[in-house]
Amino acid sequence: MKRVLITGGKGFLMSRTTKTYQDQWEILSLDRTQLDITDHEAVSQTFESFQPTHVIHAAAIAMTQVCEDHPDLAYRVNTEAAEHIAKECKKHGAKLLFFSTEQVFNGNKEAGPYTVDTVPVPDTVYGQTKYAAEKAIQTIEADAVILRLSWLFGLPERNLPNGYTLFWDVFSAALRHQPTQASPNEFRGVTCAYDLIDQFDSIFALPAGIYHFGSENTMSRYETARLILKEINISEAIIDETILCASEKFKDHPRDLRLDYTQTKIAGISILPTEESIRKELAAFHYSL
Ligand SMILES: NC(=O)c1ccc[n+]([C@@H]2O[C@H](COP(=O)([O-])OP(=O)(O)OC[C@H]3O[C@@H](n4cnc5c(N)ncnc54)[C@H](OP(=O)(O)O)[C@@H]3O)[C@@H](O)[C@H]2O)c1
User: Among 15, 79, 187, 188, whose Cα sits 20 to 30 Å from the Cα of 165?
Assistant: First the structure.
């Protein structure tokens, strides 16, 4: 049985992962109060005592604005701690799964979809600290799968955090009768977290390297937001009132952060397009109005 050390255990993605695999893996899932990953000595002690065969390093400061406001902290958490964890993985022969982000491309002049060979030009602290972590992990030559994720969503679950997702943004806007804005000039993959979580055993088996994971999405953020409400049978009139078209946003420079998944699919990982991912998740929750 895999012995899996999870950091960021109470976050959006790892809380769902811990729940999903609790009977399949031997898991040590730690949140920030149990293991502050900037405490390198505590991290080393955790490796020594648990002796993981696999590590999912998900702890991060993942909010772009928090990283901008606290760049030193973001560097310590997102870069230095990841580097130390990669060193410990190498020392203990553990396979590492590290989450990077589409945001490493947010300063690239050319539009997506970006391949794994595109050189990232991150222009936010979040993107820069994640890209620096990627490079540090590769320099160490840890047995690491670095997964650049597009935007994940999940439906609300009991006692689990919702995260900041497009789904919850538009869903709560409709519930509260408070419109939300979405740009027709922004393009990103939008993917159900479980499309990823359900494949972690296959992802662990990938050779070390950088991979992209998310959904192909031909729709803009505006169109994707509308689709979510349409799929839960919200009327066109209410959708019009709820999703406001922010047509000026990114008008001169469309924001296209989409990733190219060719190499990930070739490696045997299946990826649903955004439309199917949304429909599958709603069906899994037997959601209908
Ligand atoms: N969700 C997405 O759409 C998405 C997309 C691309 C990449 N990613 C990456 O995927 C990973 C998981 O994302 P997520 O959405 O689950 O993020 P999340 O909900 O913010 O979870 C990250 C967790 O890291 C913890 N953390 C922060 N600083 C820490 C520290 N010093 N020591 C230990 N834990 C610390 C946070 O705890 P506190 O809340 O207590 O601070 C939080 O629970 C992250 O690395 C993120 O960058 C996510």
Answer: 79
